[in-house]
Amino acid sequence: MRTRVVSAIVRLALAAVLLPFALDWRSPLLASVRPSALACLILVPCILIAAGILAVRRPAGRTLRALDAFALLLAVITLVSTAALELRFHLFRHAVLTADAAALEKIGRHLIVGYGDLDEVHALIRRRAIAGVFISAPNVRGLSAADVKAQIEAMQAIRRDQHLPPLWIATDQEGGDISRLSPPLPRPPRIADILAGHADRAEGIAAVRQSAREQGRALVDLGVNLNFAPVVDVDHGLTNPGDWFTHIHQRAISSDPEIVTAAAGAYCDGLREAGVHCTLKHFPGLGRVFADTHRSGASLDVSPSELEQTDWVPFRALMGQPDAFTMLGHVTLTAIERAHPVSFSQPAVAKLLRGDWHYGGILVTDDFGMGAVYRSRDGIAEAAAAAINAGVDFVLVSFDTDQFYAVMHGLLAAERDGRLQPEALRQSDERLGRVAGSLAPESVPSSGR
To answer: Which of 77, 146, 235, 340 is 20 to 30 A away from residue 62, measured at CA?
Structure first.
């Protein structure tokens, strides 16, 4: 009898441990282990269910029978939850890949996606379901520069055959640790380190521009035309042991907004001279933000008047640069709106940036697979619709490609239901059309609606 009690407790404990993962196993945080997680979440519950069925059929006292029944119930819930989420994903994926071609292209103009499988991203390009591809370290691991160049060229060849403008080929090549294409490219220095190597500020700024020019040439040679850099978040010296990924204190240029502005401007100039678009990130500034938006929501509880004097100085000065993109972070700017992060906030994007600041450039979100969006009350699909309606041009899904299907499925539904604002799409298409001309003037523009 004691052995049966221990067995029931062990089965109950295993099911209880697995259940939270089963309810959220398609979280982007589990993307890298998803195949093995799926196998575990199917195989182990099946074993527990089989053992549980045998246990409840055997004579036992009331307490033991209750333990056996509860362990069996948790195992069944775990298996059903896993299967339901997997079925939901495949239904979304099928719906997207078989969607009306015109509708898919109409929405796809506003999406940039990362990938883990070349065949998958080629299929999305052929379906005109995306406007850009994000390339990161796993995509180039073990490859030579020539290999990467050939892969990018194969993607662009599909677009040429479709008589569409080139894809946006984006990466994170900030310098230092955040250099997703190094190797095979040489690892560029951090902007802050370049400045630190020159006693004279003007010489340091000139060195930043030269470094960016060299970096841009290397990127262009691969076929990359968009760099998600520089970081213009002003350094406020914040460090958080629970910050797994953001580390703004380590990536920022300086604590002085004027130095950030000068160095970031020189960096963008250098990239532009080489033929690469820079990206100012992460508006409204993450230097004062303690929490890590990769994991959860975060707030910036600072008045706009104070931000205007500090964190927004680089943004205000540089967002008017030719061809510069601006990346929107997933932090909530509480003085403007408490309900949504800036990346899909109507007051922050439509009113502040597009309205008060008269910004007519390209706005791209940070990765929508981050916890601040994925775990928001809106969810990833509704957040994408809100972002586009607010005036965002590109929704980025860079880390977990599977989240693309949830985003696209939701956007297609929003378009069918009339929840995507035609005027917001029209204005965004105009902005994207202007900047696409800088990629390849000979490209044939996409057909209108």
So the answer is: 77
Task: Report whether 279 contacts 326 (CB < 8 A).
Answer: yes
Cα separations (Å) of 274 from 6, 169, 324? 68, 15, 14
Q: Which two tokens stand for residue 25?
A: 């196993």
The one-letter amino acid code at 384 reads: A
> 358 — alpha (psi -120 to 50), left (phi > 0) or beta?
left
Catalytic residue (one of 110, 277, 282, 294): 294
Contact (CB, 8 A) for 283 and 231? no
CA distances for 422 relative to 340, 352, 356, 419, angstroms: 22, 21, 22, 9
3-state class of 409 per DSSP?
helix
Catalytic residue among 233, 366, 367, 429: 366
CB 40 within 8 A of CB 381: no
Given the DSSP bridges, would you call strands 178-179 and 173-175 parallel, antiparallel or unpaired? antiparallel
Residue 198 known to be catalytic = no
CATH class name, domain 102-436 = alpha beta
Of 330, 334, 409, residue with least CA distance to 376: 330
Residues making up the chain, counted from first to last: 449
Model pTM score: 0.93
Provide DSSP, 56-104: HHS---HHHHHHHHHHHHHHHHHHHHHHHHHHHHHHHHHHHHTS-HHHH
Give residue for tokens 């990536």.
Answer: 251
For 184-204, b/e burial (b = at least 16 CB within 10 A) is bbeebbbbbebbeeeeeeeeb
| Catalytic residue flag (residue 294) | yes
Exposure string of 362-390, with b = 16+ CB inside 10 Å and e = fewer, is bbbbbbbbbbbbbbbebebbbbbbbbbbb
**pLDDT tens across 344-369, in order?**
999 999 999 999 999 999 999 999 99
- State phi, psi for 239 to the nearest 5 degrees: -130, 140
**Spans of all domains in the chain:** 2-96, 102-436
